[in-house]
Amino acid sequence: MNTQRAAVEILREKCVEHGLKLTPQRIAIYEAICHTTDHPSADKIFKKIKGKFPSMSFDTVNRTLLTFSAIGLLKVVEGHGDPKRFDPNLKQHHHFRCIRCNTIIDVYSRYYDSVKIPQDIQSRFTVLGKRVVLEGICKQCRKKS
Amino acid sequence: MNTQRAAVEILREKCVEHGLKLTPQRIAIYEAICHTTDHPSADKIFKKIKGKFPSMSFDTVNRTLLTFSAIGLLKVVEGHGDPKRFDPNLKQHHHFRCIRCNTIIDVYSRYYDSVKIPQDIQSRFTVLGKRVVLEGICKQCRKKS
DNA sequence: TTATTATATAGGATTAATTCTTAATTGCAA
DNA sequence: TTGCAATTAAGAATTAATCCTATATAATAA
Ligand SMILES: [Mn+2]
Ligand SMILES: [Mn+2]
Ligand SMILES: [Zn+2]
Ligand SMILES: [Zn+2]
Hints:
The structure is a homodimer. By secondary structure, chain A is α+β, with helices and mostly antiparallel strands. Helix content of chain A is about 40%, strand content about 20%. Chain A has two domains: about 5-70, Winged helix-like DNA-binding domain superfamily/Winged helix DNA-binding domain (Arc Repressor Mutant, subunit A, Orthogonal Bundle), CATH 1.10.10; about 95-145, Dna Ligase, domain 1. Chain A has helices spanning about 5-20, 25-35, 40-50, 60-70, 110-115, 120-125, 140-145, and strands at about 75, 85, 95-100, 105, 125-135. Chain A has a three-stranded mixed β-sheet with strand order 4-3-5. In chain A, helix 3 (about 40-50) crosses helix 4. Bound molecules: manganese (II) ion (2 copies) and zinc ion (2 copies). One manganese (II) ion binds near residues 87 and 95 of chain B. One manganese (II) ion binds near residues 87, 89, 93, 95 and 106 of chain A. Chain A binds a DNA duplex through helix 4.
């Protein structure tokens, strides 16, 4: 998904860079996720691979995806799985999320409020909400490190 | 959080509007979440309430928060709980999420890419990433209804 | 090529969190 | 006040992630 180079080559480079072994499991998992565009869960990837690689365990898939995220081969994106996070603030606003402590902080910005929804997106979806989501390190977590 | 009217009044209106009973549990839960700004999980709210309302069960808190979200008293926001969702696409892009089926679809937009991070936000946080998140109903779900 | 060894894996156990089930309670309309 | 549909409490069941540990193996050097 990074470039059109073979997924294995991208994976090999990253593994060398981080001193990780290039295992058949890692190759299968990386190839599987690179063929998705639907932001799958670990379980989805596991089920997808199981047919071709029957000895694969769920734990390996889960652990490996987290490893990939740690070395920058993929990203963990906003999901609406559990535990759900609730927001009583119905005013238009935006969010900053700390990738260390997972705190979500409200961000108020007229500039962000005024960001438009392009016409082609309007025609593809029924858009009901819009928000700019920033991520990074919060003040407290910056202090700690 | 909606206005400065007493939370109970806002709640009462919504309950009448949707034919729901105004119970002490619902009042306690709504007041509790209205006093938060940290986007808590159901468990957080439960623990917060338990002291003042010892007979409250976790199930009631969880069920009630989902009810509140269904009648528009609050929103469920993007979280990074489980199950995690993985994205092998490292190119700058944005997301549309369907509130019915939870599908996350990639959105490419030069315009969204060019949205800036305001100076005052830069000084408050170390911003590492930015993305516009749209939500609404996807094509397939629109067909169904 | 073979031996060595630190790393990684499989599979099952454990933990964490939500959702379901059911019997008792209660808000509220008549 | 009464009757009853909606709501709740409590615990069971489910779902999903993480941990544990014995075995297997990729990478390296002899
Ligand atoms: Mn918020
Ligand atoms: Mn994406
Ligand atoms: Zn933080
Ligand atoms: Zn949908």
